[in-house]
Amino acid sequence: MPLFDQLYNFAHWLAQNPGEAEDLVQETYVKALKSFSSFQPNTNFRAWMYRILRNTFLTSRTGLKASSTVSLEDEEEGGLEIPASTGTPESIFIDRAHEHLLQGAIEQLPLHFREVLLLCDVEEMSYREISEALSVPIGTVMSRLSRARKALREILQQKTRG
To answer: Three-class SS string for 17-64?
Structure first.
C-alpha cells in the first residue's frame, strides 16, 4: 500500500492512540478508493491522501473532541527492548529520556501546530505539499510552522528548567 507507514505515523500523532490510528488509515484508504475517480492526474497524490486522512480524523470521534494526552509509557507492551546501538547504558538512557521529552512536548502542541510540524519535520513534506494536504495557503503553513517551533522550544525550555 503506498504511503502506509507515513500515513499511520501521522494518524498516530493526530489520534494519539494506535488502534484509532489504524482505523483512520484503513478508512482513509477506503475513502481514497471510493473517490479515486475524483483524483486529478498530475496533482500531488501524497498531499491528496494526507488531506483525506486529516479530514477523516477531524470528523472522527477523536478529532471532534479535545484530544487528551496519553502517556507513552502506557502504550509500551511486551518485554524489554534491546537497543540497536552500541552506546553505553547511560548514553542510551539519556537518548531515550530526550526522545520522551520531545514526544511529550509535541503532544502538548495544539493540533493545527502539531500537524504542520509533523508533516514538515517528520514526513519531510514541502510547504506546497502541506498546503495542499491541509487546504490552507502556503503563508499559513509557514506561519503555523514558525509558531509551532517557537511553542515547542518554550515547552522544552519549561520542562528542562523544572
So the answer is: CHHHHHHHHHHHHHHHHHCHHHCCCCCCHHHHHHHHHHHHHHCCHHHH
Q: How much helix, strand and coil, in percent to the nearest 5, is found in the chain?
A: 75, 0, 25
C-alpha cell recorded at residue 106: 509535541
Instruction: Please work out, in degrees rounded to the nearest 5, the angle formed at the alpha carbon of residue 101 by the alpha carbons of 100 and 102.
Output: 90
pLDDT digits (tens, 9 = 90+) for 106-128: 889 999 999 999 899 888 899 99
Instruction: Quickly tell me which residue has 503563508 as its cell.
Output: 139
Determine how many CB atoms are found less than 10 A away from the CB of residue 133.
Answer: 26
Q: Residue 14: left if φ>0, alpha if ψ -120 to 50, beta else—which one?
A: alpha
d(CA 67, CA 12): 12
- With a threshold of 0.70, does the pTM exceed it? no
